[in-house]
């Protein structure tokens, strides 16, 4: 019995040794005998070449518009802060007055923009490039260009840049001015937090948002497509890839997206673009009045039937309104035959008037309605931010 057990042990040892030699020198001999797959699976065919869009996908719209959305890198010269001890009066007492300014350093910023013309014109936000002395534009295909500022409009927070390229530039298609309705699907494209080009999807939550305190002229598209810092100046496109707005602001308490973003409509962007390219600036009408909302209490005190119109709270001396005879306390109810419903409407109507043109202003003074002719002036340019 013992002899049989020794023979069995030797046979097992020889077999294991043989398998070890085979697995080391000829592993393919063992693999050929293994099963092809342990689990039955279904594998999709290779997608080399163009892949058809999936149902409900917005890939076509994104691919059509993404090449025209650029990354904007800005820089400006600045002074590094000095050591905090230099502000300490005790330190200054013992060591004397010393300048508390560090070495000059460059401060950088980032944002997005949209190529809107084969000539290289780019629309972005004014606050992206407002204080920059150097601007660089990076395309999605890796090309980089130095950009120059053509003009800006702080009152709508828009600016126009230009790059020069020997090659062909991708250009976005502008949608019709009245193309959007609440509930439409939109895509926000930009460079959030500098991570690279990103596409987010949402719907149009509201149109004509104003009185947000962001800019002088406000007529925003509200969307729940995620917009974050770095998206400013990027594209808001419809489900066909056409530009419907320029992403400009978010409502946030944390600095991140909370599903309330605002974009400047393409109609305003187009108007600003055309004026800046033609003249280098945006020209608007101005009459020199201070206006305010008519509250129910004010309407009752002035004997008004409703709160429509704009109350003239002040008139600038020697302004077009002053020369025409408009007085504080007047209620402006029409400009050039167009009804004034609120101060924002009045501001938009006056701004649209060409400077030098005579326009009819209908005001209510007491119980009378008076028609006055005003020679429209030119709206002063806001002072640049420091």
TrEMBL record:
Substrate binds at residues 127, 157, 230-232. GO terms for biological process: protein quality control for misfolded or incompletely synthesized proteins. The active site is at residues 127, 157, 232. GO terms for cellular component: periplasmic space. SUPFAM superfamilies: PDZ domain-like, Trypsin-like serine proteases. SMART domains: PDZ. Keywords: Hydrolase, Periplasm, Protease, Repeat, Serine protease, Signal. One of its GO terms (molecular function) is serine-type endopeptidase activity. Residues 276-342 form the PDZ domain. Pfam families: PDZ_6, Trypsin_2. It is found in: Periplasm. The keyword Signal applies. Belongs to the peptidase S1C family. This is 2-alkenal reductase. It comes from Thauera propionica.
